[in-house]
């Protein structure tokens, strides 16, 4: 019998397995509760916060894609972060988090630290001395985000994981920007992988969700228990839509990346662009590491314009196709201004330290015509000049 690959097994999760009527696409189970066989005799399912057949299919697909022991699907990406913080960072413990992580990640860890729940160090992981000094504080968790949001900095997952493990820390990697098809952090030493399933995994900007994939069954069981206790688990309909999105992930990613490569060539030599951030460029500081630990460079592009925030406003004024909106990874092209949107939750000082300026824009390149995307970006660059 053929040994089916990881992608084929994941994309066919639940297909043709309906025992009731033989539906090819697995049905959605919206029921809140399930029958007991008798007093003290629950079936495989009892209450949908605790377990749900539709959510289980999504979790199975995610665990298969990342190569983990199990996955816990939750209501949002930030719920996934909350789940890890509650399950694995003890009271009075410490977390080490990348200084240029997603603004919502920064805000959540900062809020929990302000409440005295634990301590947090926001550290430049590309500064070896600062990273080692932070590890010397005996953190419980080290939080990797690679590529980082929005400056697309690359962290060597294997090297950072080895150093963190030597310090006794659990390693978490946020893999939202690439998805399991372009990067699998567990294979490089991470213990847990986080996704905002809102983004590439769902891919259609109609679901808000998150997930944590664990390397070991013990870690997965702890997350499952905490997810149920905290009430963070994902609903059936969102799980159904996210699983539907995963089935087209490979096809979408190929077009996303092809279009991104076209726009990078438009942007890289234009005089209006002060800095271009894309790991696929040989001159990108993390290019060599990205090429080693990733199987593609993704479709997020960040650019800083000469002229600062005023140039950014001119770039956006009249921009076609790209919607000015938060989020990323959908079939539609999006653009955001991190300083005032996705990273507004960070303090001004933290944004400055991370390198997030008023002239910075982040593109999520969609699947529209590459020629049309190149035309409208070229027009925007001329306006910004």
TrEMBL record:
A GO term for molecular function: cystathionine gamma-synthase activity
Signal peptide feature range: none
Matches recorded under PROSITE patterns: CYS_MET_METAB_PP
Superkingdom classification of source: Bacteria
EC number(s) on file: 2.5.1.48
SUPFAM superfamilies hit by this protein: PLP-dependent transferases
Co-factor requirement: pyridoxal 5'-phosphate
The entry's keywords: Pyridoxal phosphate, Transferase
NCBIfam families (UniProt xref): O_succ_thio_ly
Similarity field: Belongs to the trans-sulfuration enzymes family.
Official protein name in the record: Cystathionine gamma-synthase
Top-level taxonomy: Bacteria, Bacillati, Actinomycetota, Actinomycetes, Propionibacteriales
């Amino acid at each position: 019998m053929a040994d089916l690959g990881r992608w084929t097994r994941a994309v066919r999760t639940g297909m043709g397995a309906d025992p009731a009527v033989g539906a090819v696409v697995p049905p959605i189970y919206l029921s809140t509760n399930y029958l007991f066989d008798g007093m003290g005799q629950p079936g495989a399912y009892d209450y949908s916060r605790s377990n749900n057949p539709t959510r289980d299919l999504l979790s199975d697909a995610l665990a298969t894609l990342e190569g983990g022991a199990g996955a816990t699907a939750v209501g949002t990406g930030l719920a996934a972060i909350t789940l890890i913080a509650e399950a694995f960072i003890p009271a009075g413990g410490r977390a080490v988090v990348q200084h240029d992580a997603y603004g919502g990640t920064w805000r959540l860890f900062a809020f929990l630290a302000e409440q005295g729940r634990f301590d947090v160090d926001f550290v430049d992981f590309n500064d070896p001395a600062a990273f080692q000094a932070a590890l010397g504080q005996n953190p419980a968790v080290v939080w990797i985000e690679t590529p980082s949001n929005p400056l697309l900095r690359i962290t060597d997952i294997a090297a950072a994981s080895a150093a963190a493990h030597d310090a006794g820390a659990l390693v978490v990697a946020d893999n939202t920007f690439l998805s399991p098809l372009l990067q699998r952090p567990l294979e490089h030493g991470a213990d847990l992988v986080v996704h905002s399933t809102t983004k590439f995994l769902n891919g259609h900007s109609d679901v808000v969700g998150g997930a944590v994939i664990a390397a070991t069954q013990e870690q997965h069981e702890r997350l499952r228990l905490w997810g149920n206790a905290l009430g963070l688990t994902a609903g059936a309909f969102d799980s159904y839509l996210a699983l539907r999105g995963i089935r087209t992930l490979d096809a979408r990613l190929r077009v996303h990346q092809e279009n991104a490569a076209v726009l990078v060539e438009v942007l890289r030599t234009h005089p209006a662009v002060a800095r271009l951030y894309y790991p696929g460029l040989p001159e990108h500081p993390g290019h060599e590491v990205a090429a080693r630990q990733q199987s593609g460079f993704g479709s997020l592009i960040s650019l800083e314009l000469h002229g600062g925030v005023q140039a950014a406003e001119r770039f956006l004024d009249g921009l076609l196709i790209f919607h000015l909106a938060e989020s990323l990874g959908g079939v539609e092209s999006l653009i955001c201004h991190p300083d005032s949107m996705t990273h507004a939750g960070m303090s001004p000082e933290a944004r400055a330290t991370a390198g997030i300026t008023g002239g910075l824009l982040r593109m999520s390149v969609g699947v529209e015509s590459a020629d049309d995307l190149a035309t409208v970006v070229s027009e925007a660059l001329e306006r910004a000049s």
